[in-house]
TrEMBL record:
Name of the protein this chain belongs to: Pantothenate synthetase
Residues that span the membrane, as ranges: none
Major location (coarse): cytoplasm
Gene for this chain: panC
Pfam families reported for this sequence: Pantoate_ligase
C-alpha cells in the first residue's frame, strides 16, 4: 500500500492508477471504516485500485466543536486500510489541502438545512467543499460512503448530480457493535455509564419501525415511541433532534406510507451520536 501526503505525488499516482474506488475518511478508523474499504475492494475486483483518504477537515467543524481533540491515529489507520485492501491512502496536511488565502467554498441550500445541518450551520458546506476537492484530486470513478450519516450521503449524491461529477456513489449499511450501537469514532468519548445507555438509540429506532410495520403511520406517534424509549433507557442523553423525513428530500413527513427515514442525534456529554433507520417495506 502506498502512502501519499502531497497533491503532486497524488496526481502522479493517479495518472497510472486506471479505475479507482474511493473511500474518504477523517481517520480514527474503526471496523465501520474497514468495512467501507473492504466493500470498495469487492466492488473494484482485481482490475481497479482502491484509494482512501485520511483528513480531519477543519471546514466542517463549528467554533465550539471538537476539531482540536478529534482523535488522530494515523499509524493504526494505515494498518487498518492496508488490511482491508486499500492500494493507496492520501493523508495530507491542512496546508496541503487549503490555500491560506482561499476564498471559494461550496454551499448547499436545501438538504443541509434540516437534521444535523440545522444544529451545525456550515457543517455540510465544509463537507461539500472537501469532498469536491477530494473528488477533483483523486478523480475516482466510484466512491463509497456509509449510511450511518444518511444526511451526508444524500447531500453527496446531490453534489455529484448538481455539479456533474463523473462518480458513482455507493451507500453501505451501518456497521454496529454487538449491542446495536452504530460504530463511530466518537464512541470513545463515552463514559462507561453512557456507553451502557447508548444502544438505546438503535433499540428506539427499531421499536418505531416495528410499530410502523404493524400499521401505525402517524409520524407524531412513531416519534413519541422513540422519545419514550430514550426517556426510560437513555437518561444520560440529551436529544438534539428526532425526525421522520422523506429519504430523498429529507423533508418532514406528517404521515408515512413508504420510503421514509427516522434520524436522530443525541448528546452524551462530550459525544454527539447519530443514527437512523430506513422506513421501507
Amino acid at each position: 500500500m502506498t502512502l501519499i501526503e502531497t497533491v503532486k505525488d497524488l496526481r502522479a499516482w493517479r495518472k497510472a492508477a486506471g479505475h479507482v474506488y474511493f473511500v474518504p475518511t477523517m481517520g480514527a478508523l474503526h471496523e465501520g471504516h474497514a468495512t467501507l474499504v473492504r466493500e470498495a475492494r469487492k466492488l473494484a475486483g482485481t482490475d481497479a485500485k482502491v484509494a482512501a483518504s485520511i483528513f480531519v477537515n477543519p471546514l466542517q467543524f463549528g467554533p465550539n466543536e471538537d476539531f482540536d481533540r478529534y482523535p488522530r491515529t494515523l499509524e493504526t489507520d494505515l494498518a487498518m486500510c492496508q488490511a482491508a485492501g486499500a492500494d493507496m491512502v492520501f493523508a495530507p496536511s491542512v496546508k496541503e489541502v487549503y490555500h491560506t488565502d482561499r476564498s471559494i467554498q461550496i454551499q448547499e441550500s436545501s438538504l443541509s438545512k434540516v437534521l444535523c445541518g440545522a444544529s451545525r450551520p456550515g457543517h455540510f458546506d465544509g463537507v461539500c467543499t472537501v469532498v469536491a476537492k477530494l473528488f477533483n484530486l483523486v478523480q475516482p470513478d466510484n466512491a463509497v460512503f456509509g449510511k450511518k450519516d444518511y444526511q451526508q450521503l444524500a447531500i453527496i449524491r446531490r453534489l455529484v448530480r448538481d455539479l456533474d461529477f463523473p462518480v458513482e456513489i455507493h451507500g453501505i449499511e451501518t456497521v454496529r457493535e454487538d449491542d446495536g450501537l452504530a460504530m463511530s469514532s466518537r464512541n470513545r468519548y463515552l463514559s462507561p455509564a453512557e456507553r451502557a445507555q447508548a444502544p438505546a438509540l438503535r433499540a428506539a429506532l427499531v421499536k418505531a419501525r416495528e410499530a410502523w410495520l404493524g400499521g401505525e403511520s402517524e409520524s407524531a406517534r412513531l416519534l413519541d415511541i422513540i422519545h419514550q424509549h430514550l426517556a426510560q433507557h437513555a437518561a444520560l442523553g440529551r436529544k438534539d433532534y428526532i425526525a421522520l423525513v422523506d429519504r430523498h428530500t429529507l423533508q418532514p413527513l406528517p404521515t408515512l406510507e413508504n420510503d421514509g427515514l427516522i434520524a436522530l442525534a443525541v448528546f452524551f456529554d462530550k459525544a454527539r451520536l447519530i443514527d437512523n433507520i430506513e422506513m421501507v417495506r
